[in-house]
Amino acid sequence: MSFKSLGLTDAILKAVEKKGYDTPSVIQEKAIPLVLQGKDVLASAQTGTGKTAGFTLPMLQILSKEKQVGKRQIRALVLTPTRELAAQVHENVREYSEYLDIKSTVIFGGVNQNPQVRTIRSGIDILVATPGRLLDLIQQGVISLKRVEILVLDEADRMLDMGFLHDIKKLLAMMPTKKQSLLFSATFSKEIKKLAGGFLSNPVLVEAEPENSTAEKVVQRIVKVDQGRKNELVIKLIKDGNWKQVLIFTRTKHGANRLTEKLVGARISAAAIHGNKSQGARTKALAGFKDGSIRVMVATDIAARGLDIPLLPHVINFELPNIAEDYVHRIGRTGRAGASGEALSLVSIDEMDYLKDIEKLLGEKLGSDIIEGFEPVDKFSGKPASKQNQRGGGGNRGGGNRKGGGGGKPSWKKKSNSSSRRTGNRN
């Protein structure tokens, strides 16, 4: 299967080739022909599967067939839950439309609206937006959605998690009833199906992979450690492994700030990214992380679905998420587009219920390791945790040490055999 066989035009194929892609992913194979046929699509696709191109490429082709007479008006709207994801989607739109007469822009909060307003007033075909800023500019009379022909809800489940349902319904009421609608979601909850039923017309269901599966080439490792020693262990792992690019997830904004301070104090370049940071600070941190000037980025779950870092080798769950599905999205930051990666989770005794929820979601047991010198201590007996507890039900699954992103091999030794696990079937 090639992109040409999907029915894409030469101008789009040229842009795809320039990006270095030659073979479409599963979601692209399934979704692109359906979108080109004008059908509404309800798609289940995990992060890292190439879903953005799955709706962007056919959307651009449809819009490019008919040129607007007079001033350009918004004909396609892509809604995303986070600023980072909006910026990422728009970057893809710009790259894929390089050889087309298509104008686009992105809007989100946290930055001065004036440049956004100027671009919109000059005329655009495609708008990528977060719901809050979009409603803001509609109320100011800057934006009209009366000419929208194609609507895309990207990461719809995350938008519902973040409380955007009311905003989405308001926006839907401002658009034409007759339009092509595409909904992409990592999960098909009852809420998602209800939302889809409210605005999709005879949608075709597309599933790229089993729900909540994890990347085939992501090695998942659980390390049992006491909560109070996680900072020390993270620093040791990064230094001993000579890891050059590490994304670490914490549960809270304050936790992200504290860990970042500890890393910087240990002479490891690091930056935090979360909702309390200004958009300028978030953009600067992400740029530094991508160009290598920042070695570690510490993030809350706001970043779990909006970051696109090619060939990211390491993701660490400093704390397990309290929502099991977020584990899938966190570790989905590595092992993207067929590359390999490692997802390491540091688990303390108070997080065992979270671990059980994750294992239930994945439908498998994740075995665990302990690291010499960081053996967890049973908080009741004051003695080292038993061998049975150390394994966490995972048993011996083979594996072994993996090299870090910088090429060095970790110097620590594990008390139990490695319990790395490769799961899922994903491109």
Polypeptide structure, described:
The chain starts with 9 loop residues before the first helix and ends in a 36-residue tail after the last helix. It has 15 helices and 14 strands. The protein is globular. It has helices at residues 10-18, 26-36, 51-64, 83-96, 114-122, 131-139, 156-161, 165-173, 190-199, 230-241, 253-265, 279-291, 324-331, 352-362, 387-391, and strands at 41-44, 76-79, 104-107, 126-129, 150-153, 180-185, 204-207, 218-224, 246-249, 270-273, 296-299, 314-317, 341-347, 368-369. β12 (314-317), α13 and β13 (341-347) form a beta-alpha-beta unit. It has 427 residues and is α/β, with parallel strands linked by helices. It has a 7-stranded parallel sheet, with helices on both faces. It has a 7-stranded parallel sheet with strand order 10-11-9-12-13-8-14, sandwiched between helices. α2 runs parallel beside α3 and α3 (51-64) packs across α4. Helix content is 36%, strand content 15%. The chain has 2 domains: 4-207, P-loop containing nucleotide triphosphate hydrolases (Rossmann fold); 218-391, 3-Layer(aba) Sandwich (Rossmann fold).
Please tell me the total number of domains: 2
CATH architecture grouping of the largest domain:
3-Layer(aba) Sandwich
Structural class: alpha/beta
- Briefly note the CATH topology name of the largest domain: Rossmann fold
Report the sheet with the most strands, covering strand number, pairing sense and barrel closure.
7 strands, parallel
Percent of residues in helices comes to 25-40%
| Subunit arrangement of the protein | single chain
Q: Tell me the β content.
A: 5-15%
Topology pattern, helix = H, strand = E:
HHEHEHEHEHEHHEHEEHEHEHEEHEHEH
Spatial strand arrangement across the major sheet: 3-4-2-5-6-1-7
**Which segments are poorly predicted (pLDDT under 50) over 5 or more consecutive residues?**
210-214, 385-427
First and last CA, distance: 14 Å
In CATH, what is the class of the largest domain? Answer: Alpha Beta
Shape: globular
Radius of gyration based on Cα positions: 22 Å
Mean pLDDT equals: 83
For the secondary structure, the number of strands is: 14
Determine the CATH superfamily of the largest domain: P-loop containing nucleotide triphosphate hydrolases
Number of helical runs? 15
